[in-house]
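Chain A, query sequence.
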Amino acid sequence: MLQLNNISKAYAGRVLFDQASLQLIRGDRLGLVGPNGAGKSTLFSIILGEEAPDSGKILLERGVTLGYLPQESAPAGDETVLELATAHMADALGWEAEPKAKRILRGLAFRESDFDRPAKTLSGGWIMRAHLARLLVQEPDLLLLDEPTNHLDLESLGWFQEYLKSYPGAILMISHDREFLNQLIRKVVEIAHERLNFYTGNYESYVREKVAREEQHLAAYENQQREIKKLQDFADRFRAQATKAAQAQSKLKQIDRMEKIAAPVAAAKTVAFKFPQPPRSGIRAITLKDVAFSYPELQIYQDLNFEAERGQRTVLVGPNGAGKSTLLKILAGALVPQSGERTPGHNVRVGYFAQNRQETLKMNRTVLAEAMDLENHVPEQMVRNLLGSFLFSGEDVFKPVGVLSGGEKSRLSLCKLLLDPPNLLLMDEPTTHLDMASIDALIGAMEAFTGTLIFISHDVHFIRKLATTVLHISAGKLTSYAGDYQYYLDKSNQTSDRSALVSGDALTDSRAGSPVPVAPAEPVKLFKTREEKKAENLRREAATAAKRDLRKAVATMEAEITALEKKQADLALELELPATYGKPAEAMRLNRQLMAVQDKLAATTAAWEKALQDLAAMDGPSPD
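Chain A, predicted structure.
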């Protein structure tokens, strides 16, 4: 459906792509990865036709529609949220679009009362959600998503992830969310060293395969270098001897004939840092007692009691609007409750990393001047050292803050926080705008942090790595889980299921606010007969075999589709050659071949899509 052939692009002498090619077919799920500045968003701009490559061709199948979600901003005017979500739909489809839009908006945590609000009155993050809803309503053939999880909370992210699993079109996405990529993508396109490198599988498969390829490349390069040295040493030693001069010359020719293996390229520089360990606090890091807090016309907490102990790493989870960020702000002292007490523990120093932390930076200052603007004096050399570990090195420290990217501003904000380290660290979505290397480095630093951490994140990988306790917040009520994120998932599901079976009451759908009837529990059968077990095993084996065969068929068809797409592109390019039109018989032959390939491609693609649907039906719904 889309081909980029030998694309090259450079900015101010810096090459992003050199003879790079990419092919997308229907149903593709591709993750586009690479360090900040590698050219991921530029590649999107080239696909969208917003930028032209310096050389190369872009081939888009006729009639294919594209949809694009930018990373940071999208326009909103006087239209309502619902009107924005149904924008650009044909009149004939309007009656179908509205109910679909409402379902999608609810999934993205909009309330019914939000549907008729002017979109421009929303915050930037909610405007992005409304535009995401618009794209999902339109269902373009190719969906281009640039960091789509940045503005989602954990629960709406889960809904969005499940929705994309059955999305009918192809998806090409940029994301720093490792878990999100693992759940959705089947191929990885890596931008590295001016090339596009392709990997099959999800993100974790890509990481393993990349390491294996690098090791194989290094081994092959070193083996070849040893062989070259051996041949060169022989030639140098004997070229002056008449009896062996011919042999020496032969060795030199052997070196010249070799297809040289390029030297391994050094890995891109990544963030590497550690927290300077803060002073030890008392056992109780902070306490809230009988706290009440309300916004105008909206009560969030009443008689709230909470206590965090030294060394805890607690993640706050719960539905959107439950009060997670509000609780973090109360703990930080950024919000003052109407009643109750907030008591920091002995020797506690609080550090707060807010979602809008970047907005507190002074845009007209240099990076160095902003980093040194701290309550406590820090020597300039220490500041420079830490900035260097955050990839601000050399002349970068004299850049105005206003020209930095979102990721660079996030790194600068983290740097300021770490230069004056707290022993109670409160973080609200700290991974937003960070690339994967920065997230991994932050995880490494936080694992070594000896203070107390309370945080909010929609990055499941980040949560799994750091959280040792989970605090669920819903309707102003706190439920603590004394275990990691998986423990919370297991226990919360178990508790929910048990409550439904014991009470027989209706559960409440927190998103829609409507009761969901629960069927009465069936009698539980404790033992199975030998015949029942045998029949169950046979059914299981048959299902496993059927799934295995279907997966093989899907893989075979994917390979065939790739070959047919390439053949189609080759024939199309051949037909474009002026020389072809000077040979009418040849042009007719190529046209017949092209039509046959297109017919076969359409049939194979249809069979492949049907096989994928059958496979998804066999797999059943994915667990949360």
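The chain is about 45% helix and 20% strand. The CA atoms of residues 108 and 129 lie 7 Å apart.
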